[in-house]
């Protein structure tokens, strides 16, 4: 895919808020079969796909690397290489969480603002601080769900 087509691809997918399509570079969508997602994580998400996801979420490479519990230098080097199964699974999980957050907050800017705001439920830390673990991402999703149903957090 040419650089111009990649930019158009990312822009069109951001507007539709299909971060799964962005991270998988069009191989999967939010409507894909969960078994197809499992097969995809076995083959691996490309580092290029993760960088495209970071761009779509308005995150730096450093932020996405921290969220994946890896280093930015590993993501920057050899962008065409694929991530291991665990990192690929985490990348898809972050894409799903991004979609969930944008759906509730209305846009990526509001979601990012909330992720960077200290929340009492997270011991006064910003929720983004806990995004580097499966349980942390689950807690973020549960917290947004509570907000959705008017629970105070």
Descriptive account of the structure:
- The structure is a single chain.
- By secondary structure, this protein is mostly helical.
- Helices cover 63% and strands 0% of the residues.
- The protein has 9 helices and no strands.
- The protein has helices at 3-16, 19-23, 34-43, 47-56, 61-68, 72-76, 85-105, 108-115, 134-148.
- Helix 7 (85-105) runs parallel beside helix 9 (134-148).
- It is globular, with a radius of gyration of 15 Å.
- The relative contact order is 0.12.
- The model is unreliable at 1-15 (pLDDT under 50).
Instruction: Compute the separation of the termini in Å.
Output: 44 Å
What is the number of E strands?
Answer: 0
Overall 3D form: globular
- What is the ordering of alpha helices and beta strands? HHHHHHHHH
Radius of gyration: 15 Å
Backbone structural class? mainly alpha
Q: What share of residues are in beta strands? A: under 5%
Q: Characterize the biggest β-sheet.
A: none
Give the overall pLDDT as a whole number: 89
What fraction, in percent, of the residue positions are helical?
Answer: 55-70%
Number of helices: 9
Q: Uncertain regions: pLDDT < 50 for 5+ in a row?
A: 1-15
């Amino acid at each position: 895919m040419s650089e111009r087509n990649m930019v158009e691809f990312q822009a069109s997918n951001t507007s539709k808020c299909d971060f799964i399509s962005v991270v998988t570079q069009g191989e999967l969508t939010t409507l894909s079969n969960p078994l197809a997602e499992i097969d995809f994580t076995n083959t691996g998400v490309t580092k290029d796909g993760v960088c495209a996801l970071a761009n779509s979420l308005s995150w730096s490479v450093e932020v996405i690397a921290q969220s994946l519990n890896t280093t930015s230098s590993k993501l920057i080097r050899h962008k065409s290489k694929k991530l291991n199964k665990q990192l690929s699974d985490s990348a898809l999980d972050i894409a799903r969480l991004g979609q969930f957050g944008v759906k509730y907050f209305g846009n990526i800017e509001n979601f990012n603002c909330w992720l960077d705001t200290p929340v009492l439920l997270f011991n006064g830390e910003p929720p983004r601080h806990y995004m580097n673990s499966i349980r942390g991402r689950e807690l973020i999703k549960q917290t947004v769900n509570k907000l959705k149903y008017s629970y105070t957090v």
